[in-house]
Write a structure and sequence with these properties.
Number of helices: 20
Largest sheet: 6 strands, parallel
Helix content: 25-40%
Number of domains: 2
Distance between the termini: 55 Å
């Protein structure tokens, strides 16, 4: 135990949260042009931005749909939480790329950028003259990623997809839920978030390839394919047996026991797969007869045996408080953890200590506490620097510092409607009502 404490202390010093902003960013110097809406594309770019990439987000005059998608119609200082959570650390430009002059400005930025990401309808960028062949002519090193529900080719290309549709079309919803009820979708936008993560990984892979060859490439990512990929053993099992995977509630069909159980004061997640772990659980339950019959993990997976074991555990946990089961898990070596709420997680000292939850002072919105992306990296950690921004908030900064335009030229572009800012009649486009007109701007 003392050895473990010493190890934890050393690692904690390596990941010292007080030094978070003193450390370099692994993607610093990588410029990403984001032409994305809703969650899937913006979340991909958010992963990159939190690790230091310079992300420039382009919005049309109506703005990202997520400015209007928010839980229970709740807005905070005109901000939609639905927009904020996948839009940190970005620069915001109001500019529709279908405008010929806007296209020229965008192509000028492509010459000075590394990555273009879009999640528009397949073919939309090409219709504007912004397909990969056209972008690569002016910058052979450019990497373009297009992500959509069904990809850029195939019989279903062009169909509309949202997270719930992707979960359903990828087979996830069908296997989620209890056997005696209908399919259930995940309570969060899991198809969006995991696909976005894989898109970010694909971009990092392409950057690595470019580093070695000098050549960019086009990446076509299909959201539904990604759902198929993360269904663990499901597809191979179906191929080999010809059987569909059934819905099994909270029970794990490949590990027994691994399930959620009801206690006197809440729910506990409990798992004990190895013989040693299962023996510890049976000892804690005073049910060594179960261990004598079902010590072998494979034997436990047989349907009738699993039913017997899970029923015995369910009857036992109902006589215990959650903390008792957790303590017994620590003592006897099986996994047991309280099924906590999102509120519990946000106030957890463990997550705060690890900077999983970061508190930062945003110049426009004030103090915000949010989750930051793992992994925790000792030398180049991810970080939250600022929140989402009103529509067109960084027009002047981007055009002046990155393209060298003068204030006069920028003003003319605004007068012509090539660039634009928030509509004061649409609160979710706008800064907070008490914004002082200068805080958060990158240029005075």
């Amino acid at each position: 135990m003392e050895q473990l404490k010493e190890y934890v202390k050393r690692v904690e010093q390596i990941f010292d949260g007080e030094r978070l902003f003193d450390k370099p960013e692994p993607l610093k110097g990588v410029r990403v042009l984001e032409v994305c809406y809703v969650v899937l594309g913006p979340a991909c770019c958010d992963y990159l931005a939190e690790f230091g990439a310079e992300v420039i987000k382009f919005e049309g005059q109506r703005g990202d749909q997520m400015r209007f998608v928010t839980p229970y119609a709740y807005f905070w200082k005109n901000m939609s939480p639905g927009l904020e959570i996948q839009n940190h650390n970005k620069y915001w430009v109001g500019m529709h790329l279908g405008n010929p002059k806007a296209k020229e400005l965008f192509l000028d930025l492509v010459k000075k950028s590394d990555v273009v990401v879009d999640n528009l309808t397949p073919g939309r960028m090409a219709a504007w003259g912004l397909s990969y062949p056209e972008l690569s002519k002016i910058n052979p090193r450019i990497i373009q990623l297009h992500v959509s529900g069904y990809g850029s080719w195939g019989p279903w290309t062009g169909r509309t997809s949202y997270d719930a549709v992707a979960q359903s079309m990828g087979g996830l919803s069908w296997i989620t839920g209890f056997a005696d009820r209908g399919p259930i979708k995940s309570g969060v936008w899991i198809a969006d978030w995991i696909t976005a993560l894989m898109c970010a990984i694909a971009i990092v892979n392409a950057l690595n390839y470019r580093e070695r060859t000098g050549r960019g490439q086009f990446i076509d990512y299909m959201q539904v394919e990604n759902v198929i990929r993360f269904l663990d053993w499901t597809w191979l099992y179906t191929y080999l047996t010809g059987n569909d995977r059934p819905r099994s509630g909270n029970r794990d069909l490949a590990i027994c026991p691994s399930d959620l159980f009801d206690c006197e004061d809440g729910w506990v997640a409990l798992a004990a797969f190895t013989e040693e772990e299962f023996k510890g659980l049976c000892t804690a339950m005073n049910r060594m007869d179960l261990f004598e019959k079902f010590a072998d993990p494979v034997v436990r997976l047989r349907e009738e045996n699993a039913a017997t074991i899970l029923k015995a555990i369910d009857e036992w946990t109902r006589t215990k408080k959650v903390a008792e089961v957790e303590a017994l898990g620590q003592e006897y070596g099986f996994a047991a953890a309280h099924v906590i709420t999102a509120k519990d997680a946000y106030h957890s000292p463990h997550f705060l200590k690890r900077q999983t939850i970061q508190e930062f002072e945003d110049a426009v919105y004030g103090t915000i506490r949010e989750e930051c992306y793992p992994p925790r990296m000792s030398e180049t950690p991810s970080r939250l620097k600022w929140a989402c921004r009103p529509l067109g908030f960084d027009n002047r900064f981007v055009l002046k510092t990155m393209l060298g335009l003068s204030d006069t030229e920028i003003k003319k572009l605004q007068e012509e409607g090539v660039i634009f800012q928030w509509n004061p009649d649409i609160p979710s486009h706008c800064p907070p009502p008490d914004w002082d007109g200068k805080s958060g701007l990158k240029l005075p």
